[in-house]
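re: ur question from yesterday

yeah so i grabbed the chain u mentioned. its 80 aa long if i counted rite. heres the sequnce exactly as i have it in my notes:
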Amino acid sequence: MGFGTEATKLTLKYAFEYLNLNRVSLKVYEYNKRAMHVYEKCGFVYEGRLRKARYLAGQYHDILIMSILSEEYCRRGTIC
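ran it thru and got these structure tokens back, copy pasting raw so excuse formatting
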């Protein structure tokens, strides 16, 4: 398990088990495949796409919106 996965899991643990949040969402650039893989592995679900919302190095890129709900987090075998 890499540092990104571990950091994401710890953040989710804090958000759901200590802050008692119902939902955590994020935005990730479409070209960041490694980050998307980490988020999916941690239980995040794809919700939507902001088309051509990021301009970088002469090109437009989509921004993906992902989220995870507390009930989804708890289903993954964590203490809630």
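noticed a couple things. The CA atoms of residues 12 and 24 lie 8 Å apart. also The chain has a mean pLDDT of 93.
anyway ttyl
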